[in-house]
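In line with agreed milestones, the collection of sequences with tokenised folds has grown. A representative record is reproduced below.
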Amino acid sequence: MRAALFQMTSGIDPAANAAAIVDMAARAKGEGADMLFTPEMAGYLDRDRRRAAATLRSQADDGVLAAVREAAARHCLWVHIGSLPLKDERADGRWANRSFLIDDTGAIRASYDKIHLFDVDLATGESWRESSVYGPGEQVVAADTPWGRMGFSICYDMRFPDLYRALTNAGATILLAPAAFTVPTGQAHWHVLLRARAIEAGCFMIATAQVGAHADGRVTYGHSLVIDPWGEVLLDMGDAAGLGLADIDLTRLGDVRARVPAIANRRVIPQEVQIS
């Protein structure tokens, strides 16, 4: 499988972001890619909630999703949209942070809403309250592709290994972790967490990231990664936007799982803890 990762600096103009993804779909196909991967918030990245409220659309009306589906069909290319912010029909009015898997006919094969929401105050003075804007997903999602079963996650999810345990118990062999990581947390934890998730799951990990200074004032870490089941980094895109390619040898999965059969050796862990 040849994977193409689009490391983006998404802004506050959905049409411009859509055009960039469509252009990269053509480039990826020209490079022989089987599938294009984009980061979290690929279609719109804006911390100004009032401006975002006037811009966001529902899934049925989202122009970025429509443009990417058309490009996937035109180029006969599978696409994973890391996520799009969408107005949702939740009773509490919160939005959805939603991934999409699109096949080479432009059909949506699966979607996933981010389960774990980033609520934190950083030492840098940055404060994030995703849960005040987005409602959490409630469903673990995996989907079959010509290259194996892919398990979905988004950004902050990577800190919660139980999600990946559920995905691999369901047969996932390629894990997806699109992100818009802050620079301080990226420098400290991005590589080590993603390598750990790949190793403990015995899976390939594809983590496509936002990078650089964005129109809304934030700065993201970049370093989109492809990691094999042994924890070897096959691609690290550093801190520049653009297209990266990685050839994934799917036979590696069986070799690694034979050497360290961690999934086969798993036990059900009791939820009650004996404290002495």
